[in-house]
Amino acid sequence: MSTKIPRDAQVIQAILKDMGIIEYEPRVINQLLEFIYRYVTTVLDDAKAYANHAKKKGIDLDDVKLAVSMQMEQSFTSPPPREILMEVARSKNSIPLPSVKPHCGIRLPPDCHCLAACNYKLKTIKKTLPKSSMALSGSTQGSRMGMLGAGRAVHRPNSPAVRVTTINSGTPSTPRPLVKINAGSTSAPANVPKIQIAFPAQPNQPAEKMDMDARGVKREREDDDYDAA
Amino acid sequence: MEYSMNQLPQAINSDAKTQSSENQNSEVASDNSAGQTLDSENVDSNTLAAVLQFLQKHNLKGTAEALKKEARLKEDQLRDAQALQVDSEATNLLSSYKSEGDPNAYEKAYLSYRRFVESSLDVYKHELSLVLYPLFVHMYLEMIYNNHEAEASKFMERFSIDQEDYYQEDLKKVSFITKKEHMKGSDLMENFKSSQFTVRMSRDTYSVLKRFLQDKNQSIVMNVIQEHLYVDMYEGVPRNKAQVESTAGAMEGEANRQVNKTKIYYGLLKEPDIQLSVVEEEEDGEPGEGGEKPKKKKPKKDPLLNKKAKSDPNAPPASRLPLPDLRDIDKLEKVRALREASKRVALGPDSLPSICFYTMLNCAETVTCVEFCEDSSLLAAGFSDSILKVWSLVPQKLRAMKPAEQLADIDKEAEDVLVRMMDDKTGETMKVLYGHCGPVYSASFSHDRTLLLSSSEDATIRLWSLQTWTCLVVYKGHIYPVWDVRFSPHGYYFSSVGHDRTARLWATDHHQPLRIFAGHYSDVDVVQFHPNSNYVATGSSDRSVRLWDCVSGNCVRLMTGHKGTVSALCFSTDGRFLASGGADQKVLLWDLAHGHLLADLPGHTMTISSLAFSRDGTVFATASLDGSIQLWDFFRMTDESSLEDVNISGHNPDLLKRSNVIESLRLARYPTKATPVMSLHFTRRNLLLAAGMFEG
Asked: Which regions are annotated as WD repeats (chain B) (predicted)?
């Protein structure tokens, strides 16, 4: 069966041959075609925008050149030039190595740079619950979080009052729960460290209730954060 | 005695690149008196703008004013010129290529130089031929810069095949630069213009070269050599073909001797005195010994360890690199390691190690890295779908830590609290770690087996806890794929290398790197720590191997000689030697004391993937993607070569390249069916473990 290869694909084959690539899977041509199409349309779109900005009738060579160089800086970056790297390295290496403080347990950066916060996962609820907002006052370890289900929260005296808002109902409203619980950390390796959960706005999500898996002290890694099931 | 042709421009070229290029600019401008029409005005104002910029940068206002008045420059002309200047340093440096020469003259000049090389005496021929490649490239770039594209492409076509094989890849990249606009963006261009290609020549060869250049009035060749080449001259006999071949191949020529002069501490750190406590004695099963010193234990240990007790002049002082103190767990681990070491099999030509090969089946070619932990109880594999799997190689399963409530219940003062805190119910032979967003290119276990590092194409490095089986930290710093990451043998520090041409030194408790090792000309592909943790070796796609000092961040050794990307590195057990394997299928052995090449081991037919030294330093194993493992007699290798007898010119004349000697050093060669070997590891008892992915 002789299939006539479209002209664009033939062009790509010629380019590959020019660059010295002799062995390639046939799907590579399709991938390159897609890429070329996307790249060229992006460049031409940008060139059109620049031409319009300069109040020109049609696209000019300069417009295209500018569009290409913009694309280069954005998508096809290359590693920083050697001089800059050497300069950065020189300034970084002039700081002497910090001394190692005695410490037991795993040496980790400050908590804000670690993934040591508690995990949470969302759980859909079947029946609708009235909107409520609760201010969480200082509590001891055993306190429950009420609507949020099983959880543990320790309130640090100096932190602002914690607001727990759950938005849920049958209506697909934007849930905006802000749960900020600052927990004092104890020393054992597995414990309840600072828990900061800020749930980003998620429009058009089915009503979901925040499930504070504070017992996720065990920190089992949930691969999917949103358990929509 | 060192001498460089470029002394004058180099002396000026202290800080301001603009000034030096401006010098070159004026040199070139004055050279070409003919054909300066409109160009000359621009050149001059450009030059002036460059000088003014330099003066302003250094706050020499008075001089700047005086210059402006004298030159009587119009304000807008100046502004235009300055705008051009601000554009990029690249323009300034590129303008060193500007010349009004006749394009056809380049071809003639190149041909005449080549004829000269071929007709010169054998003694000088090999060193002179080293100049051909940089000469060719720079001539080509000059022609492109001056818009002689047709001649340039003819020039490229005609002479590129003449160049050496190992330069063909670079030449291909250069050949894609066909227009002046391409020059600004290209990586390779930056390498060529920013640093000078180093060529090592003996004084005699150099005088022959100078004579040729002056006699035949070869101005073009002379210009190129003056501006773009660095001739490292040495006293002594010119090298023969084999010697020249052995160190050629790197992207920027050979290493000049100054680089390798720094003294490095290649000895091992002094083993700390482990005071045996009551606990350990109970484990020993000899309750009778009352708090005895380690000395009693020493006769049981390897004689090698006894030697370490004396101070090694080449060992770094213990305080040179800040390291964490040994915890009790670490001390127990050390004792355990020593006990295992005492049961070690002594390897040699008549006692070859047994090899245990772990073949991964049904992977669909997705395994990207395999790694064994130090005591051989864990195996980690990274996959191209961004997951990491860890297997237990011993009967003990992998258990996770108990949840917090249960942990609160256990007795913290109990003897085996570390065992009790693990939850038996979660024991599995294999655990999966999710987290990366791209193929995992490298993994590294910490010495105490509680942490695992992994690096990936998503430009992050992740630290995983092997007790809770979760990710603890994400280290962000590289902006391009990270090709390799390695924990230091003493823990706490780790090093990563990536596509951004840098190697970085991190500590687990800092979210930013502590050191940045910049200097390679292309991606850095492998990294390895020295056994004393003070130095880091990196191998790169620019075909060179560099050794960096962790404390100062400087490059202390530059070793060229590979003709392809360096793909594997391994330090010898005593820290004196470094073995490197590359995509050129060669394994090179370097003596770190001077940075010399000791041996070139052939035998593999594909890229070298892994190297390993036995625990007692007698046998050396190499593995490659062709699916074979070769064993070498390292003891004899380093015994035979005269390590102290080094030629004053800085290269070891007696390379172990004589094939009969090499063949006798190879102890065995074991091929597999169809499994490229990805990793090698000697256990504490000198059993060789290997892992690979079956490609049926």
From this structure: 360-393, 433-474, 475-516, 517-558, 559-600, 601-633
Q: Report the distance separating Cα B473 and Cα A185, nearest Å.
A: 18
Radius of gyration of chain B (CA): 29
Helices (H), B317-445: 328-342, 404-409, 417-420
On whether residue B350 sits in a domain, the answer given is no
For the cut 70, the answer to whether the pLDDT of residue B245 exceeds it is yes
CB contact under 8 A, B472 and A106: yes
Top-confidence range, A134-143, B49-58, B131-140 = B131-140
Chain B residue whose CA is closest to A190? B404
Model pLDDT for residues B555-568, shown as the tens digit of each residue = 999 999 899 999 99
The alpha carbon of B408 is separated from its chain's Cα centroid by a whole number of angstroms, namely 48
What's the CATH number where B435 sits?
2.130.10.10
- B251 located within any domain: no
Number of domains observed in the structure of chain B: 3
Same domain, B543 and B675: yes
Output B369 or B54, whichever has higher pLDDT: B369
Rank A30-39, B257-266, B633-642 by mean pLDDT and report only the highest. A30-39
Q: Give the residue-averaged pLDDT of B256-272.
A: 80
Tokens of B311: 């101070």
* Neighboring chain B residues of A218 at a CB cutoff of 8 Å: 400-404, 468
Mean pLDDT, chain B, whole residue set: 79
Mean pLDDT is highest, among B308-322, B336-350, B487-501, for B487-501
Q: How high is the pLDDT of residue B435?
A: 94
Please state the ipTM of this predicted complex.
0.73
Question: Per-residue confidence at B92, pLDDT binned at 50, 70, 90?
Answer: low
Q: What is the pLDDT of residue B223?
A: 79
Q: How far is A3 from chain B (nearest CA, A)?
A: 31
Q: A177 or B212: whose pLDDT is higher? A: B212
Sequence-distant (≥ 6) Cβ neighbours of residue B695 within 8 angstroms: B365, B674, B675, B676
Region B586-593 average pLDDT: 91
Same domain for B81 and B207:
no
Selecting from B435, B472, B521 the residue whose C-beta is nearest the C-beta of A116 gives B472
Task: For residue A191, give the nearest of B404, B473, B499 by CB distance.
Answer: B404
Domain holding B209: CATH number? 1.25.40.500
Q: Whole-prediction pTM value? A: 0.73
- Asked if B321 is an interface residue toward chain A (Cβ–Cβ < 8 A), one would say yes
Stated as kind and residue range, the H or E segment containing A72 is helix A61-74
CB atoms B507 and A113 under 8 Å: no
Pair B32, B125 in one domain: no
Q: Which two tokens stand for residue A83?
A: 């001089």
Residues facing A92 on adjacent strands: none
Distance from the B472 Cα atom to the nearest Cα atom in chain A, whole angstroms: 5
Half-sphere exposure of B204 (CA within 13 A, CB side): 11
| pLDDT at residue A103, as a whole number | 80
- The last residue of one of the domains, among B208, B238, B268, is B238
Cα distance from A104 to chain B (closest Cα, Å)? 8
Do B45 and B169 fall into the same domain?
no
Question: Do the Cβ atoms of A93 and B451 come within 8 Å?
Answer: no
Are residues A82 and B471, on separate chains, in Cβ contact within 8 Å? no
CB contact under 8 A, A104 and B434: no
Q: Does A220 contact B at CB distance below 8 Å?
A: yes
Helix (H, G, I), strand (E, B) or coil at B143: helix
**Residues B553 and B635 placed together within one structural domain of the fold:** yes
Beta bridge partners of B294: none
The DSSP-derived string for B607-627 is: -EEEEEE-TTSSEEEEEETTS
Looking at residue B653, its pLDDT comes to 46
Angle ∠(B199,B252,B576) on CA atoms, nearest 5: 85
Supply B600's token pair. Answer: 């070139």
Question: Is the same domain home to B434 and B580?
Answer: yes
Rounded Cα–Cα distance for residues B626 and B99 (Å): 49
Range of the domain at B80: 20-86
